[in-house]
Amino acid sequence: MNSRRSVTFVSVILVATFAALIVWPRAAMTQQDQTPQKQQTPTIDEYQPKSTLVTKEHKIERAKFPFIDIHSHHWNPTPEEVDRLVKEMDTINLRVMVNLSGGTGEQLRKTVAVMKGRYPDRFVVFSNMSYDDLNAPGFGKRVAARLEEDVKNGAQGLKIFKEFDLVFEKCAELKIPVLIHIAEPSAFFDPWDYHNERWEELKEFPGRTRPPAKYPPFETLLTERNHLFAKHPKTNFIAAHLAFHGNDLERLGKLFDGNPNVYVDIAAVLAELGRQPYSAHDFLVKYQDRVLMGKDIYEVNEYKWYFRALETRDEYFEYYRKRHAFWRIYGFQLPDEVLKKVYYKNALKLVPGIDAKAFPE
Questions:
Q1: pTM
Q2: Longest Cα separation, the chain
Q3: What was the pLDDT predicted at 12?
Q4: Dihedral through CA 317, CA 320, CA 326, CA 327, nearest 10?
């Protein structure tokens, strides 16, 4: 009996030992796998966190009302390109597109012919100045005369980057608006370091930096611009890109208060409004007569971000161009009457020759 017990005991010991030899390496490997691995710190480009936020989303593919894009660029478009544009415009309720890159002289005539000649109610073409004879005496008078001729040939506004008094007086006389681009985002004038919120864009496009050794300061440019607005009270100015005050709406409001002839578009600055939805909503309601819809770089699939921000209260959604904004944005849902003004009524008020019957009252 004792012999049998001894054999059984020894067998149990052998089985247990054998099992331990099999299980222990696996357990050791599992424990080793669970040991935190030292991870390499990602670069700012590599870090792409995915939000876990679950909230209602409204993916709007088409604007609630027909709209006018006051800020688009199409250089020397072909008939085929214009046909494609119109088909794409119809899909998003874009009723009238303003081409700010019409050129002057013969180039303008060709652009007007290919765009308005084919679709007279769908496009507006702005004239641009030629600086080829800038240094020759009498430049201002020549440019004013060329502008008058461009208007006769179909131009309905002027896109400009510089100040020329005679030209602005001519615009007032012809009752056409001036869409003017002065300065750049204020961050472009700041040191290009890791505290600059536009660091990624400046990395991608280093030429957009505005170092003080090479360019006038941001504040100097705005002071000169504001003097220009005040100097020509009969000329209507549309300051591009929220006048580069999208990050300081209170300051933009003061600009409006002091200059009733100044308007702005929201082209390429949706991220500024979208990161401050409460302030953006209140500002656009208060200054609803002074803001116009605009996109800048044309890409039909990117307009949906504008619709979503302007028409919904969606929260914390990605912006379409990361270099403009590393942050996510929010909708600020404008009332219908305000939305109509931003989408088309303010443009109808400023730009001559657009058929108002194509829009709701």
A1: 0.88
A2: 127
A3: 42
A4: -20
Q: 325-336 pLDDT, tens per residue?
A: 889 999 999 999
CA angle 12, 13, 17 (to 5 degrees): 115
Please tell me the distance from the alpha carbon of residue 230 to that of residue 169, in angstroms, as a whole number: 13
Residue labelled with tokens 């819809």 = 293
Centre a 10 Å sphere on the Cβ of residue 155 and count the other Cβ atoms it contains.
Answer: 27
What pLDDT, on the 0 to 100 scale, is given for residue 36? 58
Give the integer Cα–Cα distance in Å for 104 and 153: 10
Lowest model confidence (mean pLDDT) among 52-66, 162-176, 214-228, 266-280: 162-176
Q: What is the mean pLDDT of residues 33-50?
A: 77
Quick one: pLDDT at residue 105? Answer: 96
Name residue 67's beta-bridge partners.
94
SS3 303: helix
Residue 242 has pLDDT above 70, yes or no: yes
Top-confidence range, 35-39, 121-125, 160-164: 121-125
Angle at 23 between CA 19 and CA 29, to 5 degrees: 165
How far apart are the C-alpha atoms of 261 and 125, rounded to whole Å?
Answer: 21
Write down the residue that tokens 């961050």 correspond to. 187
Asked if 97 and 86 touch (Cβ cutoff 8 Å), the reply is no
The pairs formed by 146-150 with CB atoms below 8 angstroms and a separation of 24 or more are: 146/104, 146/105, 147/104, 147/171, 147/174, 148/174, 149/105, 150/102, 150/104, 150/105, 150/108
Distance, in Å, from the CA atom of 157 to the CA atom of 357, rounded to the nearest integer, reads 21
Q: What is the DSSP string of 180-213?
A: E--S--GGGGS--STT-TTHHHHHH-GGG---TT
What integer best gives the mean pLDDT of the chain?
A: 91
Instruction: Give dist(CA 138, CA 94) in Å, integer.
Output: 41
C-alpha–C-alpha distance, residues 188 and 218, integer Å: 9
What's the rounded Cα separation, in Å, for the pair 333 and 314? 9
